[in-house]
Sequence to fold (295 residues):
Amino acid sequence: MTGATAFADGSNAVRSGTPSRTALWVATQRAAHQLLDEPVVFHDPVALPILGAAAEAALRRDPFRHNDPLNRSLRAAVVVRSRVVEDEVARAVAAGVRQYVVLGAGLDTFAYRDGFAGTGLRVFEVDHPATQQWKRQLLLESGIPLPDGLTFAPVDFEHETLVQGLADAGFATDRPACFLWLGVTMYLTEAAVMEPLRFVAGLPRGSSITFDYQPAESLLNPIQRATSAVIRQRAAALGEPMITSFDPAVLRERLFALGFGEVENWEPEDLNRRYLSRRKDGLYNNGGRLICARV
Fold:
């Protein structure tokens, strides 16, 4: 749910000018992973301090309140999707890509623990101005410095487009880029989902976008359907209702039609097999799905 307010034009958070509450929830899950799960799937030394001193202290005192079966499943989806994305960033950088765009950045920590220092990688964090202001205050209070190569691209999607926001931030459309887009598509209309995908598909060869999506209800097994219902209820209670789902086969064909040359779909079983096999701690992704589309 990271940064849902950045793209969800109808969200209450955007209209009230407040940061995304789901962004904080996702950040808390990443932080809890550092304390509860062994081995760690997604190592993030900034995950705890970026929450702020009070929230970090509360989590350290009692991380187990986030360790019921439902939270474990949701946390697994959060950390596995982060791992997939950063594996894709590593692949892109090795191939010569030097632009990384985090759409709906929320409290994403990549830029503040960047393992690609010295490569010339530029990181663009795109989010609603209110969420970015909140994040910058947390960074300041936590003593986390802003790294060289990071550019904030505040975009209020009620008044400007992604293309305009990135252009204002100095993004080069004549060079390939790697995009991350997590926890956002399910909060948008289908038309709004297609707009950024169309933009990335038109970038130079070597560009890619990795994003998650909500599958059509008819494709879920009973356990996944029950989990999905709880997530939907929680998101709606936070003022950020989930409104769009996809059939992965149809979505794959639409991505090819936009101009992507390669589409890799990750089902829950694929993610568990690659990242969560042979664990004793019960960390298991019950529903998270990802797609990586490459130009």
